[in-house]
Amino acid sequence: MTATRAKVCGLTSADDVAAAVDAGADALGFIVDVPVDTPREVSAERAADLAAAVPPFVSTVLVTMTDPAEIPALHARVDTDAVQVYGDPDVETLEALAADLDAALVKTVDAANPDVARDYDGVADALLVDSTDAAGAGGTGRTHDWDATASLAAGLDAPVVLAGGLTPENVAEAVRTVDPYAVDVASGVESAGGVKDHDAVRAFVRNAARAGEEVSA
Question: For the domain that residue 152 is a member of, what is the CATH number?
């Protein structure tokens, strides 16, 4: 049986990083250089310090909305295992970015625009399906049509990461419906903006893993 992987995103403190690791999270996300107002954004220097403290076998992810041309240099400063990008660059731009990065590339796509996911399939190492806002940012706290995402995922070669409005209470249902490679949470496990509720983080990771085991049994 294979447990669904869990990414905890928008980490801003060493205590929250340690709590996510202790909870069994598979990946930790650090938000840097985004044009939207979010309490989860940290500086590149802060992200680098937090990522450096993550133990082996837990993946680190730089999450950014900056110009694709600037991402390789930003990644070199933060030094994570993967880079998660927002926006809608053309396929050629994304291919060039993938070639320039010494890291896995995760492309975020809006659940409302499944054709975009198909365009990026085969270029990105994984596709994160999210509920984005008018600026193309995630962290909206809104769910989307999981049945539609399940149909989309079934036709993609790239692993699918499910995001958008996930919480400890609904993640099991989401996993059973979509059967994603991984799930991603930020605001759904917070006690305040940018501050994680450690009990909620533990519950989220546990519930996602158990549901994943049920699906794969």
Answer: 3.20.20.70
